[in-house]
Amino acid sequence: MQAIMRLDQKAAVTEEGSKIESYYSQMGRVRAKLTAPTMKRYLERPSYVEFNHGLKVLSYNDSLTVESTVTARYGKYFENDDNVFLRDSVVVINREGKRLDCNELNWDSKRGKFYSNKHVRISTPTDTIYGTGLESNQDFSNYNIINPQGQVMVQDSTLQ
Q1: Residue 160: C-alpha distances to residues 50, 152, 153, 156, 157 (Å)
Q2: What CATH number does the domain containing 25 carry?
Q3: H or E element in which residue 5 lies
Q4: What letter would DSSP give residue 82?
Q5: Computed from CA positions of residues 102, 117, 143, 83, in that sequence, does the dihedral angle turn out positive or negative?
Q6: How far apart are CA 33 and CA 144, in angstroms?
Q7: Is position 104 within any domain?
Q8: Please, which pLDDT band fits residue 6 given cuts at 50, 70 and 90?
Q9: In the chain, count of helices (H) and strands (E)?
Q10: The pLDDT of residue 159
Q11: In a domain, 157, yes or no
């Protein structure tokens, strides 16, 4: 009887879904929309949600204008600490047209920060910068490459 109860408990610790569309709101305002073909939610501790077939997240400002778009082929959301791990063809594009490409990216939603210790490429309308390691705010308007490489065009501040 105990063996059957243990099997029943294991079957109940996973939730699955397909054609996922989820909204995240904060203080009555929509902040993000997540879409994914599939998801699995594991309820054992620490609980997490896994997106094995990719995901897309649109982040919104107070006017419901898209601030940034994040896509990845794999994602894992850790429910206890509100952290997200993304890997495999991760792309972040903000409304200014800045684009981040990398293979691994972490998002700390409590601090509102992206970070990575892997190779990154940032493309802007005028430059492409490579490096290893990154910290950024979540709308990708302010970022810091820890170990940058490449050429950057700098405007002459005396020409106005």
Answers
A1: 51, 20, 17, 9, 7
A2: 2.60.450.10
A3: helix 2-12
A4: T
A5: positive
A6: 26
A7: yes
A8: low
A9: 1, 11
A10: 65
A11: no
Beta bridge partners of 51: 75
**Selection from 94, 146, 147, 103 nearest residue 123 by Cα:** 94
Position 152 scores a pLDDT of 63
- 38 within 8 A of 17, measured Cβ to Cβ: yes
C-alpha angle 39-44-50 in degrees, rounded to nearest 5: 20
Q: What secondary structure does DSSP assign to 22-60, as a single string?
A: EEEEETTEEEEEEEEEEEEEE-SSSPEEEETT-EEEEEE
Res. 5 pLDDT band, cuts 50 70 90: low
Average pLDDT over residues 26-49: 90
Going by C-alpha positions, the residue among 94, 97, 96, 70 that lies closest to residue 84 is: 70
Answer whether 131's CB lies under 8 Å from 149's CB.
yes
Residue-number span of the structural domain to which 49 is assigned = 2-149
Tally of domains in the chain: 1
Residue at 156 is within a domain: no
Average pLDDT, integer, range 62-83: 92
78-103 pLDDT, tens digit each: 988 889 999 999 999 999 999 999 99
**Which of 81-110 are b and which e, b meaning 16 or more Cβ less than 10 Å from the residue's Cβ?**
eebbbbbeebebbbeeebbbbbebbbbebe
pLDDT value at position 2? 73
3-class state of residue 138 by DSSP: coil
